[in-house]
Amino acid sequence: MTNKLQKLGICAATFALACGVINVNKAQAQFRLDVQEPTTTNYDFDLTIDAGPLLDQTFDGSFSYKDSKVTGVGEEYIELDDFEFDFLGTKYTSETHDDLFPEVLLFDGEFLGLSLANDTFSFNPGFFEVEESFFSYNIGDVEGTGEFNYSRRDPVAGGDDDNHKSTPEPNTIIGLGILGGSLLLKKVKSKK
């Protein structure tokens, strides 16, 4: 009778630990989701001049911002983390031209374009959609405009999430130890 009670107790303990391991792993998975590093949205853009002295010339650039700054509600101007634009032989960046104050404009989470300006050019976001955004410039008191083509970059494969390695949890090790111990106990008793 004691033998059956011992076996039942070991099975119950193993089952309880297994359920605990499953619940701990679910909680840890949720915790990992809650504390993930903020993701960054990256864009490239091409600019084609459609009026003025630079007619038909093209220029390009890129920018990025943290998604965690976006609420998705109403009109939002989000400061850029990084900005780069090549224009007439000058490379404008967040580090070299801190007077630009580059931002993206979003409305209800939808990207409407870049917003920034200096004394030579300005990036003007759209009012209702990104296709309304435009570029304007002034060279030697002659003005011109241009159109943007924005393209959002896909996240890079092999990022930080791909580098995580699985580590056994303490409850898993305890559960496996009890299971192994019960099998060993069974083997020892069967030899007697």
Describe, in plain words, how this protein is organized in 3D.
With 192 residues, the protein is α+β, with helices and mostly antiparallel strands. It folds into two domains: 2-36 and 171-191; 40-152, Lipocalin (Beta Barrel). It is 29% helix and 36% strand. The chain has two helices and ten strands. A ten-stranded antiparallel sheet has the order 3-6-7-8-9-10-1-2-4-5, with no helix packed on it. A hairpin with a 6-residue loop joins β1 (40-51) and β2. The protein is rod-shaped, with a radius of gyration of 30 Å. 15% of the residues are buried.
Quick structural summary:
With 192 residues, the protein is α+β, with helices and mostly antiparallel strands.
Major sheet characteristics: 10 strands, antiparallel
Looking at the structure, the CATH topology of the largest domain is Lipocalin
**Quick check: average pLDDT?**
79
Number of helical segments?
2
Strand order of the largest sheet: 3-6-7-8-9-10-1-2-4-5
Number of separate strands: 10
Gyration radius (Cα, Å) is 30 Å
List the helices and strands and how they pair.
Blueprint: H1 2-34, E1 40-51, E2 58-66, E3 75-79, E4 82-87, E5 90-93, E6 103-107, E7 110-117, E8 121-124, E9 134-139, E10 142-152, H2 170-191
Antiparallel strand pairs: 1-2, 1-10, 2-4, 3-6, 4-5, 6-7, 7-8, 8-9, 9-10
